[in-house]
Design a protein that fits this description.
CATH topology of the largest domain: Rossmann fold
Bound molecules: adenosine-5'-triphosphate
CATH architecture of the largest domain: 3-Layer(aba) Sandwich
Strand content: 15-25%
Largest sheet: 8 strands, mixed
Oligomer: single chain
Order of helices and strands: EEEHEEHEHHHHEHEHEEHHEEH
Number of helices: 11
Shape: globular
Number of strands: 12
Radius of gyration: 21 Å
Mean pLDDT: 89
């Protein structure tokens, strides 16, 4: 396996290094590889957006990184080095010691993640007690502090999840993730259950907190436009693989992979030129039997004959990486010569 490229990171210290991560679901028809060899490095304090259509493996990758997969899913290969330690090889006990303290996870729906029969304050207290022996007064003070950080009046420590609005519940989840000011927060579509206005305001708040507290974020969404203003780098996933990775601005300005271009064309631009939204015809493949060659070739508007045969790697295109044979160094030099 080739060494993962780290050229896209700044000089900042590396917090997370994912090497050739593979996740399989065991099914009656054999294994389905939902994450097929992802390489990624994340610097301290960096905000990475992960985008792609439904079923491309974004959540599975996130859960694979956080070691939160449950059967039938298992990590079938690769390493997740968090501050130099491989989470994949860690015991459940060591992982539990890291969770909340060093990294935390915010799920799609706080209604499912929060316990409906306990008050918010009780749930914060349980999370703290699992990791620290703080006196009652410190638990109360910290719980109130993190709620205030996300713009919720601390009186709501007494509230039960159903007594809060959807936006407040998501904020409460983020507050809980901040209890120990971790170095990394992974977020799986934390705004998807909210209306557009609440979505933007929560995004802005996450970004503000991130700047203030310095944690890194991996933010999964299927909405390109949502992360456009907030993420430093963007990872585009298709059929379990990274198909493009680069600075968010660079990917938006000149997407190097036809799939990224298709995703961008599927969302309206607020300030850009008015154009017809085209999107991408067809649907992501069944990962039990992914297409030969380039996994995107059956839907690709610029596919060449060899795309159904030759397997593309991630190639460097200016400052981004793209998994497309159009950018294979040999193909590019032939084009230049002719
Ligand atoms: N329980 C399961 N058994 C078999 N395959 C599964 C199972 N759950 C997910 N998969 C496979 O894993 C793939 C990736 O799913 P995943 O939920 O990670 O995608 P996603 O990009 O996060 O989608 P979404 O945006 O809808 O959450 C799916 O295409 C599906 O084929």
């Amino acid at each position: 396996m080739s060494e993962p490229m780290t050229v896209l990171n700044s000089d900042r210290e590396i917090l997370l290094e994912v090497r050739d991560l593979r996740v399989e679901y065991a099914t009656q028809n054999g294994p389905v590889e939902a994450v097929a060899g992802v390489d990624l490095t994340l610097a301290k304090g960096e905000f990475l957006g992960v985008v792609g259509e439904s079923g491309c493996g974004k959540s599975t990758m996130l859960f694979g990184i956080a070691q939160l997969l449950n059967p039938p899913a298992t990590v079938s290969g690769g390493e997740v080095l968090f501050k130099g330690e491989n989470l994949v090889a860690m015991t459940a006990k060591s992982l539990n010691a890291l969770r909340w303290r060093d990294f935390s996870v915010v799920m799609q729906s706080a209604m499912n993640a929060l316990n409906p029969v306990h008050s918010i304050g009780r749930q914060f207290k349980d999370a703290i007690k699992a990791h620290a022996r703080w006196p009652e007064s410190q638990i109360k003070a910290r719980s109130a502090e993190v709620l205030e950080l996300v713009g919720i009046d601390p009186v709501h420590l007494k509230s039960f999840p159903h007594q809060l609005s959807g936006g407040m519940r998501q904020r409460a989840m983020i507050a809980m993730a901040l209890l120990f000011t971790p170095d990394l927060i992974v977020m799986d579509e934390p705004t998807s259950a909210l209306d557009v206005v609440a979505q933007r305001s929560l995004m802005a708040q996450i970004k503000e907190l991130q700047k203030q507290l310095g944690f890194a974020v991996i933010f999964v969404t299927h909405d390109m436009s949502l992360v456009s203003h907030f993420s430093d780098r963007l990872m585009v996933m298709y059929a379990g693989q990274v198909v493009e990775l680069g600075g968010t601005r660079a990917v938006f300005d000149a997407p190097a992979h036809p799939y990224s271009r298709g995703l961008l064309d599927a969302f309206p631009s607020i300030r850009g030129e008015v154009k017809r939204l085209t999107g991408i015809p067809g649907a992501p493949p069944n990962l039990g039997r992914p297409p030969s060659g380039c996994r995107f070739h059956p839907r690709c508007p610029v596919a060449m004959e060899r795309c159904s045969v030759d397997v593309p790697e991630l190639y460097l295109v200016d400052s981004v990486q793209a998994r497309c044979l159009l950018h294979e160094p040999a193909a590019v030099s032939v084009e230049v010569e002719s």
